[in-house]
Every structure is written in structure tokens, then in C-alpha cells.
Amino acid sequence: MPTSPTTASNADVQRGATGTLSGRVFELIPGDRVPAANILVVAVVVTSSSCSPLCVSTTKYTYENTMTGSDGRYNFPALPSGSAVLLTNSPAHQQVCGAGTELRGSATLDVEITSTASPQPSPTMPPLRVAGQVYEITPGGRVGVRDAWIALEHHGPDAPFLTLSTGADGRYAMCGIPANWQISFDVGKTGYDRSYAWHTFTGDTTVDIELRRH
Questions:
Q1: Which of 139, 181, 183, 194 has its CA 20 to 30 A from that of 83?
Q2: What share of the chain is helix, strand, coil (3-state, %, to 5)?
Q3: Please, which residues bridge with residue 142 across strands?
Q4: In what helix (H) or strand (E) does residue 78 lie, and over which residues does it extend?
Q5: With contact defined as beta carbons under 8 Å apart, do 98 and 162 qualify?
Q6: pTM confidence score
Q7: Which of 80, 115, 150 is the last residue of a domain?
Q8: Which domain holds residue 154?
Q9: Pairing relation of β-strands 141-144 and 130-138?
Q10: Are 134 and 192 in the same domain?
Q11: Prior bond to 21 cis, omega within 30?
């Protein structure tokens, strides 16, 4: 696990900046995919230092935010090298798939969002894909836990990646998981003990998660 994280200031980002990150945010609506204007976009970059065995490695977390333009475009002109993730946020929308990359120089990432009231699936479903069921064991057997939340982090605590919830049968599906990244699954629901575990993926797979009542 990393040491206590530090958040870089804007001045620190400018001094150590080596890369740019840009792209577009699209909203999925029934039968179409349109540019999403005035959406908050947050970039989270995890930078780990390496050193000889006589010193302690450190992990730095850099947070920057911007808004999309009328054409759905965003741009981060000065970010440090590291594992970069994009998060979108709107009271009426949710992010469809994860969006992460190893930032070394310049990179482009597009992000899809959809209405929380009428969610639409991604027409492309970018790899890597993980699906499964959050369940509990009852006297009658295994039962899916509906409306459980799943909060994903990457590389270490305080580096959010994606948040979603389970359906009526406890099942979930996610996409856009970078291969060979450490991803934590923080899973819970009121009345249940939380489940917390780290996973690393190399291809599409299934992860089932058991919750136990208090």
C-alpha cells in the first residue's frame, strides 16, 4: 500500500508537468450519442516515486478539474506523468465506463455519460470488461443483493476510478478497466458488512462478491 498521499498544488503541477490530456465527453441518449456541454471533468493522476532500498517510495495524487465546452471537449494542458483517470460528475448523469491511461506526454480519452433517470448502455463497451454479482447466502441459498454500491479506486486509496450500483438481481457490469492496474472493489449496502479487495485484470472476467448482514 502507498504511504500517506499528498495532493499536488497547481504550482506543483505546473513545475512538474510533462503531459497533456484532452478529449470529449458524450452523452448517451436513446438511439444516439451527443456531445455533453458544461460537464465537470476531474483528472486524477497517481505518480509513484522509485528509489534505492535505503529510502521509502512515495505516492503523490494530483487532482485537476475543468468543464467541457459547447462541443463536449475538455483539455488538461499540464499534468504530471503517471496513471491518469478521468471522472465526470453531474447531478443528472452517471459515467458509463472507466477512463484511464498511462500518461507519458500527450494522451486522448473520450468519456461517455448517461442519464441517471434513464441510463443507456454504451454502444461500444470498450475493453476491459468485468461483470459479476453481489450476493448473500441465505437459508434458501444464494440471493443477489440489489442496489449495493461498488466504489472502485486505482493504484491506492484516494484515487477514485468509477462508481456503480447493482441491479435488481445483484448483478453489475463495468467496462474500460485498464489492464494490469491495481483496482480496489469497495462494496457495501446499509445493513451489511463492507467488502474490500484488490484485483488486477489482464482480460475480461467475472468477479462475484459476497456481502454478509451485520
A1: 194
A2: 5, 55, 45
A3: 137
A4: strand 73-79
A5: yes
A6: 0.84
A7: 115
A8: 130-213
A9: antiparallel
A10: yes
A11: no
Give first-to-last CA distance, the chain, whole Å.
Answer: 28
The 10s digit of each residue's pLDDT in 56-96 is: 668 899 999 999 999 999 999 999 999 999 999 788 999 99
Q: For residue 200, tell me if it sits in a domain.
A: yes
Name the residue among 70, 66, 78 with its Cα closest to residue 41: 66
Q: Are 151 and 160 in contact (CB under 8 A)?
A: yes
At 161, which amino acid appears?
F
Phi, psi values for residue 48, rounded to 5°: -110, 135
3-state DSSP assignment of residue 2: coil
121 within some domain: no
* Mean pLDDT for the stretch of residues 41-65: 83
Full DSSP string of 50-98: ---TTS---EEEEEEEEE--TTSEEEEEEE-SEEEEEEEEBTTEEE-S-
Q: Write the CB contacts of 32 (distance below 8 Å, at least 6 apart in sequence).
A: none
Q: Provide the residue type at 158 as one letter.
A: D
